From TrEMBL:
<dbReference type="InterPro" id="IPR001663">
    <property type="entry name" value="Rng_hydr_dOase-A"/>
</dbReference>
<keyword id="KW-0058">Aromatic hydrocarbons catabolism</keyword>
<comment type="similarity">
    <text>Belongs to the bacterial ring-hydroxylating dioxygenase alpha subunit family.</text>
</comment>
<keyword id="KW-0001">2Fe-2S</keyword>
<keyword id="KW-0520">NAD</keyword>
<dbReference type="InterPro" id="IPR017941">
    <property type="entry name" value="Rieske_2Fe-2S"/>
</dbReference>
<dbReference type="GO" id="GO:0016705">
    <property type="term" value="F:oxidoreductase activity, acting on paired donors, with incorporation or reduction of molecular oxygen"/>
</dbReference>
<dbReference type="InterPro" id="IPR043266">
    <property type="entry name" value="RHO_NdoB-like_C"/>
</dbReference>
<dbReference type="GO" id="GO:0004497">
    <property type="term" value="F:monooxygenase activity"/>
</dbReference>
<dbReference type="GO" id="GO:0051213">
    <property type="term" value="F:dioxygenase activity"/>
</dbReference>
<keyword id="KW-0479">Metal-binding</keyword>
<dbReference type="GO" id="GO:0051537">
    <property type="term" value="F:2 iron, 2 sulfur cluster binding"/>
</dbReference>
<keyword id="KW-0408">Iron</keyword>
<dbReference type="InterPro" id="IPR015879">
    <property type="entry name" value="Ring_hydroxy_dOase_asu_C_dom"/>
</dbReference>
<keyword id="KW-0223">Dioxygenase</keyword>
<protein>
    <submittedName>
        <fullName>Rieske 2Fe-2S domain-containing protein</fullName>
    </submittedName>
</protein>
<dbReference type="GO" id="GO:0005506">
    <property type="term" value="F:iron ion binding"/>
</dbReference>
Length: 450
């Protein structure tokens, strides 16, 4: 049986080290921690499922996962997007195994029960003869995901029926979603299907790598500097602001060294700029117009990056959203979406897609750099020295960048606590603090004293 929390002594050591800006390395690979995370982090927080543009017409569906819970999302005949546990109510078979498609009914491969796009059970093979006429089909419909909500076209689910609302959970991140996803008439669209692959990694490392760590860019992605794609200045990914938000969310707003615009509105076509200015507040337009890269995340496992790619005269911007689905303490399934303004010209969209494939797609240059690093982190975090919970070997990771000596910048025009640099561990520390809050909740519920 999984205990409700960690033992008292381990928790004390953990809290003490975190208050010093350090994180014991064993939290990455400890099986007990992983079980707690499944229950207390992923069982209670909002997780990204799909974008509304993935559902073109009634019957359009996609299948997703909330860690180990299979999810079927489908647009019903009234145009509403519904989300169900993708499991037949007869004996639990995985109902729809295709990634996406269009259907009027979903029929189980085991005994043939079938469901409509509202999740209602509409067909039982030889029904009346084998179950009698009394069996009430309305009691055997697909089980809905307890909470489903959408913000700026982004559909999230929550397995906790008592969870706070999505809007409350996103908090200040809504302002940045409004800026990134709500800047164009018609919003954004997903192109293609999400790419996915399995990486040797812990989900906390991958989330943190995107949400909180521009510091790695100059070293892990050194080849891009050598190829002339990234600047030579080792501080280049540190200029701008790192913004910390509640519930472990955060965004890095990376600019030029001066903070002034080099590629206005991220090199989007000039014809789109008046539309951005019409849809955004002056503060949002100011930030959007002079930022080079936005990279951040919604805790626990949604990350995003909005970069500029290409060569001078052929620069493009797009949005890459990704979910880190844990498959174990040392394994992650990466789900990776390409998104772009619906209102952008078609040839621009196509060029931007090529830029995405070459950088953050499965085989992209930047992706391969990171995948190799994440594997190295877990490979070196499984041994006896690292797993010692008493920390006799000083087996802690360093989160001291900017710790206690960099003050927030009150002049930053967006919400959240903004620090005047992206080379700082402020978001990482906030993610770990929220993680600790979640995994220690209900500490008094367990008699084991956990
Ligand atoms: S398990 Fe689906 S019809 Fe029997
Ligand atoms: Fe990276």
């Amino acid at each position: 049986m999984t205990r409700n929390t960690l033992d008292k002594k381990t928790l004390e050591v953990l809290k003490q080290k975190m208050s010093e800006g350090l994180l014991p390395q064993w939290v990455l690979t400890d099986p007990e921690v992983y079980q707690l995370e499944l229950q207390k982090v992923f069982g209670r927080t909002w997780q990204f499922l799909a974008h509304e543009s993935e559902f073109k017409e009634p019957g359009s569906y996609v299948t997703r996962w909330m860690v180990n819970d299979p999810v079927l999302l489908v647009k019903n005949s009234a145009g509403e997007i519904k989300a169900f546990l993708n499991s037949c109510t007869h004996r639990g078979t995985h109902l729809c195994t295709a990634d996406f498609g269009k259907k009027k009914t979903f029929t189980c491969a085991y005994h043939g029960w079938s469901y409509n796009t509202d999740g209602e059970l509409i067909g039982i093979v030889a029904g009346d003869k084998v179950y009698g006429e009394e069996m009430d089909k309305s009691e055997w419909g697909l089980r809905p995901i307890p909470k489903v909500a959408m913000y700026q076209g982004m559909i999230f689910g929550n397995l906790d029926p008592d969870a706070i609302s999505l809007e409350e959970y996103l908090g200040d991140m809504k302002w940045y979603f409004d800026m990134l996803l709500g800047r164009s008439d018609g919003g954004m669209e997903v192109r293609g299907v999400p790419q996915r692959w399995v990486a040797q990694a812990n989900w906390k490392s991958t989330s943190e790598n995107f949400s909180a760590d521009p510091y790695h860019v100059q070293t892990a992605h050194r080849s891009t500097v050598e190829m002339g794609i990234s600047p030579k200045d080792p501080l280049y990914a540190g200029y701008g602001h790192q913004v910390v938000m509640e519930h472990g969310h955060g965004i890095n707003v990376i600019t030029s060294a001066t903070g002034r615009s080099i590629h206005r509105y991220q090199s989007t076509p000039e014809s789109m700029w008046p539309m951005f200015e019409r849809n955004l507040t002056p503060e949002q337009a100011d930030i959007l117009s002079r930022t080079t890269v936005f990279v951040g995340g919604v805790y626990p496992n949604l990350s995003f990056v909005s970069p500029i790619h290409g060569t001078e005269g052929h620069l493009h911007n797009y949005l890459n959203f990704r979910v880190w689905r844990p498959l174990g303490p040392d394994k992650v399934e990466v789900w990776c979406w390409f998104m772009i303004d619906k209102a952008a010209p078609e040839d621009y969209k196509q060029e931007a897609y090529k830029g995405y494939i070459g950088s953050f797609g499965t085989s992209g240059t930047l992706e391969q750099d990171d995948t190799e690093i994440w594997a190295r982190v877990v490979q070196a975090s499984k041994g006896l020295m690292v797993r010692d919970k008493e920390l006799s070997y000083n087996n802690v990771s360093n989160y001291l960048m900017g710790f206690g000596h960099v003050d927030p910048d009150p002049s930053f025009p967006g919400p959240g606590v903004a620090y005047p640099t992206c080379y700082i561990d402020a978001i990482s520390r906030s993610m770990h603090e929220y993680w600790l809050e979640l995994i220690t909740k209900d500490i008094n519920d367990s008699e084991e004293g956990c």
